[in-house]
Fold Peptide ABC transporter ATP-binding protein.
Amino acid sequence: MSTSVSLSLRDVHLAFGRNQVLRGVDLDVARGATACVIGPSGSGKSTLLRTVNRLLEPDRGDVLLDGRSVLGDDPDALRQRVGMVFQQFNLFPHMSVLRNITLALRRIRKLGEDEAVAVARTHLDRVGLAAKADARPAHLSGGQQQRVAIARALAMQPQVMLFDEATSALDPELVKGVLAVLADLSAQGMTMVVVTHEMGFAREVADQVAFMDAGVVLEAGEPGAVFEAARHPRLRRFLSQVL
Ligand code: ADP
Ligand code: MG
């Protein structure tokens, strides 16, 4: 596994036209820490994650990995360091699970076939799917497909992992297996930002919970402080609706 880095967002602003979506986001995630981002729909959680791997460019502010701004970096190089997993798994349907993972290893990490297969198998094993290497995605459950997507991201040896509602599209009985993979990854010291509606996961796994509302991190702290001693009325109201 590659070494994790710390992640900081400093006063990040971003507008889509006249819609000011991020209004000065500040967030610090220590090396190896897991931050869960919670908050209402439309508050800017996905937009925040997208500024970290430069799928979106902030209008103002900075994004830093280990204290160094990423805004001048080559986006493709940055996306190797920052892995991202979405609600929709986006696997290639016509390729085997193994091929889905080796493709980027060969094209981007420039590994030879044998090494790419070995790396892919290692990561499939890590998410509990070693036996499914030759299956087509359509023959897997949604939870298994999401675990393949996670293995694919991990195979690139990222230094930070971003998860955008990775379990929101799954049937309830499949959520646990995916959250278990995230908890493992967190325990292994990956720096992670997890946007989630799973408050149990946030409470148990996160080192830090950040509540986003209307384009800012309104309150952040240890899970106990956020869930049991929220200061902002907006956060208290949000928690009363989701807990
Ligand atoms: P969340 O993930 O918290 O639900 P988003 O970051 O997806 O919130 O969206 C925040 C706001 O930004 C919403 O008003 C949404 O309509 C707007 N938005 C998000 N992505 C785009 C885009 N690509 N173009 C225009 N508006 C967008
Ligand atoms: Mg979102």
User: Anything to note?
Assistant: The chain has a mean pLDDT of 96.
